Structure formats: C-alpha cells, structure tokens
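Bumping with the actual sequence this time:
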Amino acid sequence: MPTLAELKAKWFIRTDSDQTVLGVPCRRHSPGATGTQLAVSTDNNTVMPLIDGAAYMERWHTLLGTLHGQPGAEFMHAGWRFEGVKTLGHSVPGTDALQDVAAAQAAGVAVYPVMCRNLLMLRFNNATVIWLHAHGVWNAVMDNRFPAGGSNHQKFAVFKRTGMARAIMGSIDISKTRWDRPVHNPTDPDRHPSGKPTHDTGVLLIGPASRDVELTFRERWNDPTRTFGLEPLLPPLPLISSPLSAEPGTGTHSVQILRTYGITNATFGYSWHARGEFTVWASYLNAIRTAQSLIYIEDQYFLPWGFPPRFAATGARRDVDVVYQLGEAMKRGVKVVVVVPANEEDSTHAYQKYQRDLAVNYLTGVKAAGASGDVVVASLKNGTTDIYVHSKLMLVDDELVLIGSTNVGQRSMTHDGEIHAAIVDSANSFARELRKTLWAEHTGRPAATLDAPLAAYALFVADTAASAGHLKPYPVDPLVVYPPVAGTPPPGRTHSHVINHLVDPYAGPAALA
C-alpha cells in the first residue's frame, strides 16, 4: 500500500511553484488582502462524506446551532443560491435556514452570509438579503465580482469558535431545489414542492483544512475594493480580523483546497487578485493523466471545451480538454464511468445536451477505435422519474477524491468562482469507501459487494445496461458527432456563440484560449 507521502506526491499539484500541467498554472493567485496564502495541502484532517442534500443541510443546521453563546463564534457562508429552505425537511416542524442565521446572530454569533449577484440568482438572493436585513442581519450581501456573464459559484460554510472549526463544502446550495435523500423518491413530503429528485455530494472537513476554506472566504470579504462588488453598500461592512482557525487535527486525511477564478479586470472582476487561479483544472488534468485503472465522475454538465470541440483540434488547446484526456486515459487501459443528468434544469439544456453528447460519442469512438480501456455513461432514475445529477466529483484508482462546486467544462474550470477539495488518506480507504457508498446508492447493491473496483465496475456496467437500481443508460444521440452529420446540426446557427459566450465561456490563460 502506498504511503501518505507517496499519495500526496502522486495526486496533489504543486501550488507553491511555477509548475504547470499541460500549460495550466498550478500556482495560486497572490494572497491579496489577507496577506496569508493557503497551504499547499494540510494533514491530520478528518473528512466525512455528506451524500445528498438532506444530510448536508442537517449538518449545516446542527453546526450553526452549536455556535450559540460560544466565545469567538463566527459563521461564514458562501453560496450561489441561498434561501429559506427547511434544512430538516419541509414537513418537519422547526426553523428554516434564514431563521437559523438570524437566531445565530441573536445568540452572539458573528455571521457573514455572501451570495452570488448574477441575473439568474438575483430574484432569489435579493429576497434573502431583504429578509435578513429586516431581521437585523446587516452583513448579508450579494457579490457581483466575476467575469461578464459569470457567477461566484462556490458553495461552502465555515463554523468556528475558540478552539474549534468546521467547514462543509460540495455541490449543494442551501436552497429548496437541493434538499433530497439517497432514496430519491419521486414525491417526498419533506422536500419543498419546488424541488425534485436530485443527487448531490459534499464533505465535512475537521482539522487544518478548514483554515484554508476560511481563508478563501476572507479573501473575498476583506478585499479593500470590495465596495465595488458587494451589495448593498450600506451600512459599511466590518472586516474579519479575528484569529484564523487553528484547531489541531487528529485524523488521517490530507486535503488540498483548489479554486477557479477567471482572469478579469481587477476592479470589476475578481478584485482580490489580478491573474486568476486554475488549480481545479490543473488537478483534474493531473489526476486523469496519472490514472492507471479506474476514473469515476459525477457531473452536472460534462462538456468538452468549447465549440468546435477542442478534441477535434491539435496541440495545447486540445490537450487541456478534460474530455480529450479521458480518451487518452482509455487508450492506456483505464476504465471510465460517468454519471450525468438525462433531464433538464434550465433553458440552455438543448445546448448543454448537444455538447455532452459530443463528449460521450467522442469517448465511445475512442473505445471503438481500439482503446484497451472502456467507458460507460449512465443517468439516474427512480422508476420512471429522472433523478437530476447535480454532484461534481471525480474518484481515481480508489486513491484520490476530487469534490466540490466545479463542473467539467470551460465555465467552471476557467471562468466562475469555484472551490474544490482533493483528498487522500493514510489508510488509503476514503476514496474506495466513498465509491462503494455512491455505487450502492445507484445500483441498489450492498456496499460490501462492491469492494474490488474492477469487479464492481463490471456490475455497474451490467446494471446500467439493465436499468437496474437507480441506473439507466444515458440517452445519447448517436448522431451528434463533430463535424455534424445530416439531421443532427447544432441547436441553432448561433450554437458556437451561445456555448463560448453564454453556456461555457472561457476566461483562462490567453496562451490556452
């Protein structure tokens, strides 16, 4: 079994150097207002999976409650969408998330809620800010510092008091659309009527990794030019000047916190840095190129880079496309599993679906051309009801977990504000146990029967083909290939413009554009 040092050297990128992965920078952006840089990685953490929204929101609710009346209590929350979801379930008596925040402040907790202010989220988050201000939470703000057409898509919270700090992060906003349980019932009295069956993933971080999550929040909040981007402007927002969390860890997990910030105008974009950060992108590329046997992906988007797709190009532009690198891994004999949505969630679904079908057909074409590896692409359902896949994670060789808010595509890996965590552990069991937990949920098989990864892969493939458990084959259009064939042109003559400027824009290094 590899040592922890060997696992870190193998899977973590060098964020403290000018190393690149295929030209994608690994270095973090400058420390900005905090004057403190994130660690390359931290050891001695305890990481706990939070599978699906109900588990994540219950933990959020409980941790916030434990801060009441405690010395040095602070709560920092960053979300794309934040609203009054009943975190313990819609039919369960009790408070909702906004009432939880107001109650925490009334109990002496310093609370700092930050939400995204883009056109999609304005109607939800503006209503939240108005409600919180009306209940005395003056620190509630919306953040509009991101590239044009983008968002701050990070989803995390930090809960700290003297001598204790916890962080949670993943694909899950504290919102009505994200509350669901692993059973994913078509109707659920505990889920808000606006919600639907939705699969999500997150993690709880206990130990020094929570400090790096806190630093990520402080960079945004304490930026001296923040009044250009945080609304409303009045009353003046206080800086966070308390000591950083420093709880000593006793766990077995090593964690590397990764981010995306696109290159923008420093005044009206990500004003707390000047040159962007692409460590999530670099880490995905590094992991795929290092993989030897199995890559497992859950992703809401799973899009090739741009249109025309980069896998049809040559050179550096092609090489930095995650989908292209998955095909190269298959040529080395790696088995690839991808779980993606079959159903739509927004008005750009037709464009996303076409792009995703390009990616899926590219990978199946690599297999048909003689690759020694394999690929299976699945969606989720409960009976005849689709389960929307909102999770964003990748597991590699039962050794590495990458999990957070970042989707596979140009937008998440080069443009919007995102946060992800890379996780390995000294027992080398976390990735395997998480895979078994997820595959047990999806296949309906006991987790104990899924221990051996390649044997479990064969069961996953068979269950997908048979539509067993929650699995079903992803409904790919076999004719969606590049160049387009007769009968399957892109959805509209403006497809390239919509993909490259609206659905999946690029704000990465100019040399890789």
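The tokens above came from a reply further down the thread. The chain has 13 helices and 21 strands.
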